[in-house]
Design a protein that fits this description.
InterPro entries: Band7/mec-2_domain, Band_7, Band_7/SPFH_dom_sf
Structural class: alpha+beta
CATH topology of the largest domain: Tetrahydropterin Synthase, Chain A
Protein name: Hypersensitive-induced response protein-like protein 2
Helix content: 55-70%
Radius of gyration: 39 Å
Number of strands: 3
Largest sheet: 3 strands, antiparallel
CATH class of the largest domain: Alpha Beta
Pfam families: Band_7
Strand order of the largest sheet: 1-2-3
Length: about 170
């Protein structure tokens, strides 16, 4: 696993991890054993070279989207260079692109604020829908006098109740 730190086009520092699978070419075992002192250090330097030449040309979002392109470029460069030393590169794979912790926190805060704004807009739209219904209810209460009957009918019903009460009161008197 090779870890490389670099900066993107939009000035964000990222840590890129690249996994490299290599093997010795059977016909070149002598070169593989004697041409390089430290194979892993040589591979790390080639990977770092490719990653540091690719990532600065990309924004942070592009670096996530184009991990396969970076992997292909690393594998092509390593295959060409390491063949001279008796090694075959089976696969080079970008496994992780991690932005700086402060950038991650900032991106999370931006997403949180966007969600809060969306929720606020949805609540305002719901209130707009409820407002006419509340207004219709208030208008109906004004017309009916709060009793469910139109205002004139409510007064008439009250007058009838008064008459009945008076009628009973006068009979009992």
């Amino acid at each position: 696993m090779v870890s490389v730190s670099t900066k993107t086009k939009d000035n964000v520092f990222v840590h890129v991890k690249v996994a490299v699978q290599q093997s010795v070419m059977p016909e070149s075992t002598q070169e593989a054993m004697y041409k390089l002192d430290n194979v892993h250090a040589q591979i790390e330097s080639y990977v770092a070279d490719v990653v540091r030449s690719f990532i600065p040309q990309m924004t942070l979002d592009e670096s996530f989207e184009k991990k396969d392109d970076i992997s292909d470029a690393v594998q092509k460069k390593l295959s060409t260079e390491m063949a001279n030393f008796g090694f075959a590169i089976n696969k080079a794979l970008v496994t992780e692109v991690t932005p700086n912790a402060e950038v991650v926190a900032s991106m999370n805060e931006i997403n949180k604020q966007k969600r809060l704004r969306d929720a606020s807009q949805m609540a305002a739209e719901a209130e707009k829908i409820k407002a006419p219904a509340k207004g219709r209810g208030a208008a109906r209460r004004q017309v009916t006098g709060g009793g469910g009957l139109p205002a004139g009918d409510a007064r008439l019903a009250g007058l009838l109740r008064l008459c009945r009460w008076l009628g009973r009161s006068l009979i009992n008197w």
